[in-house]
């Protein structure tokens, strides 16, 4: 069965490379220039440098080509997902849509599954998330991910179709928990990067990861997720990866904040908008989210890293 990936960014291209080991894959991008370049060079050098694209991968800028597959992966940044779905809803209404984005929509506080449900209600909706750097997947390194779908039968089909020799998928029906884990770990990664960039030490990072995890759990439970989901690949797994590796753009943004350096605004860093969205949610749900609050203040330059840490350390003492 052919599969389409919409979004020829780092992740979309990497997953397509892995899926192409099993069968034909179509990668769609909005830019016909980018597609021409990919066809000419058999590489996507701008987004995933150093990777040769397999023959089973076809690139297109035509939605008619993209819409030939029944399974469509959406590998675009979270804040653009609604626009992409609204633009192509007519072609997508009878598909199985699998969002690969990790974030919370700023305007609505919704995750990718809820955005798909609103914009293309007749489609089936799922989420692919978990610890996976695009380059690792593209190089064929072993990776385990979560495939979340509230319809168990559809989830099983997707698990079979999207598992490859190096990409092992675990199934879940808890889409709310899976999308919150993937979104919130980015916020904690910014906090951890900041602490490391400001030379606050690895103990500080471990404390931020653990207390950040407590914040993730708090939001997830308040939004109706299964508490156990956060302990899986989509939560703890991705938190562990993103908070400890310079491959992560969220962590690298944090490093630059900690060092007082500039960061390229063109790089996709999902945690910035997500921190603001989660901050608004926390206020609405009356949740205590001190690390998230500090991250929004850090990215808005309302607090320095030292002020943020002083603030966190000086909070009233409490039980764990
Ligand atoms: N990179 C990684 O290791 C991983 C990423 N993810 C998630 O995948 C998602 C995508 O990230 P990633 O691929 O890395 O990001 P990139 O920045 O590499 O690519 C983003 C892609 O989205 C496209 N895009 C942006 N806006 C639109 C739009 N309005 N219409 C159509 N296409 C659009 C871009 O196209 P254009 O070039 O034309 O702007 C580009 O191809 C994120 O949510 C990320 O968290 C998940 C796991 C790992
Ligand atoms: O989600 C990721 C790894 O699982 C990629 O993280 P970044 O978006 O921070 O690069």
UniProtKB/TrEMBL annotation:
What this protein catalyses is: sn-glycerol 3-phosphate + NAD(+) = dihydroxyacetone phosphate + NADH + H(+); sn-glycerol 3-phosphate + NADP(+) = dihydroxyacetone phosphate + NADPH + H(+)
The family database entries (Pfam families) matched by this protein are listed as: NAD_Gly3P_dh_C, NAD_Gly3P_dh_N
Q: Tell me, in one coarse class, where this protein mainly resides.
A: cytoplasm
Q: Where is the Glycerol-3-phosphate dehydrogenase NAD-dependent C-terminal domain?
A: 174-309
| Amino-acid positions noted as binding NADPH in the UniProt annotation, renumbered to this chain | 11, 30, 102, 134, 249, 270
* Enzyme class of the recorded protein, top EC level: oxidoreductase
User: Which top-rank group of organisms is this from?
Assistant: Bacteria
What InterPro entries would the database entry show?
A: 6-PGluconate_DH-like_C_sf, 6PGD_dom2, G3P_DH_NAD-dep, G3P_DH_NAD-dep_C, G3P_DH_NAD-dep_N, NAD(P)-bd_dom_sf
Where's the active site on this chain?
A: 185 (proton acceptor)
Pathway field of the UniProt record reads: Membrane lipid metabolism; glycerophospholipid metabolism
Per UniProt, the keywords (alphabetical) are: Cytoplasm, Lipid biosynthesis, Lipid metabolism, NAD, NADP, Nucleotide-binding, Oxidoreductase, Phospholipid biosynthesis, Phospholipid metabolism
Keyword Lipid metabolism applies: yes
Glycerol-3-phosphate dehydrogenase NAD-dependent N-terminal domain: residues covered: 2-153
Where is sn-glycerol 3-phosphate annotated to bind? 102, 130, 132, 185, 238, 248-250
Compartmental location: Cytoplasm
Record EC number: 1.1.1.94
Listed GO MF terms: glycerol-3-phosphate dehydrogenase [NAD(P)+] activity
Q: Which family does it belong to?
A: Belongs to the NAD-dependent glycerol-3-phosphate dehydrogenase family.
User: What is known about what this protein does?
Assistant: Catalyzes the reduction of the glycolytic intermediate dihydroxyacetone phosphate (DHAP) to sn-glycerol 3-phosphate (G3P), the key precursor for phospholipid synthesis.
Name recorded for this polypeptide: Glycerol-3-phosphate dehydrogenase [NAD(P)+]
Organism, as annotated: Lutimaribacter marinistellae
Q: What is the lineage of its organism?
A: Bacteria, Pseudomonadati, Pseudomonadota, Alphaproteobacteria, Rhodobacterales
UniProt lists the gene as: gpsA
């Amino acid at each position: 069965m052919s599969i389409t990936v919409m979004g020829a960014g780092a992740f979309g291209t990497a997953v397509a490379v892995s899926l192409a080991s099993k069968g034909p894959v179509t990668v769609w991008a909005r830019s016909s220039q980018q597609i021409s370049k990919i066809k000419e060079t058999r590489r996507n050098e701008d987004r995933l440098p150093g990777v040769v694209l397999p023959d089973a991968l076809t690139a297109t800028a035509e939605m008619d080509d993209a819409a030939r597959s029944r399974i469509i992966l959406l590998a675009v940044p979270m804040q653009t997902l609604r626009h992409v779905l609204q633009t192509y809803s007519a072609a997508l209404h009878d598909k199985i849509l699998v969002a690969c984005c990790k974030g919370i929509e700023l305007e609505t506080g919704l995750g990718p599954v809820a955005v798909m449900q609103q914009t293309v209600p007749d489609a089936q909706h799922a989420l692919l998330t978990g610890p996976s750097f695009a380059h690792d997947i593209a190089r064929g390194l072993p990776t385990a991910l979560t495939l979340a779908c509230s319809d168990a039968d559809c989830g099983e089909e997707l698990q079979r179709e999207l598992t490859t020799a190096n990409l092992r998928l675990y199934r879940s029906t808890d889409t709310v928990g899976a999308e919150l884990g993937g979104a919130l770990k980015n916020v904690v990664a910014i906090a951890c990067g900041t602490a490391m960039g400001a030379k606050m030490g690895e103990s500080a990072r471990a404390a931020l990861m653990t207390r950040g995890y407590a914040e993730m759990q708090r939001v997830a439970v308040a939004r109706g997720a299964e508490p156990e989901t956060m302990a899986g690949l989509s939560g703890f797994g991705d938190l562990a990866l993103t908070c400890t590796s310079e491959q992560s753009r969220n962590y690298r943004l944090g490093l630059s904040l900690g060092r007082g350096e500039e960061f390229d605004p063109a790089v996709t860093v999902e945690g910035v908008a997500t921190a603001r969205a989660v901050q608004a949610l926390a206020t609405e749900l009356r949740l205590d989210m001190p690390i998230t609050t500090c991250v929004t203040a850090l990215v808005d330059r309302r607090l320095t890293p030292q002020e943020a840490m002083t603030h966190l350390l000086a909070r009233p003492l409490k039980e764990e």
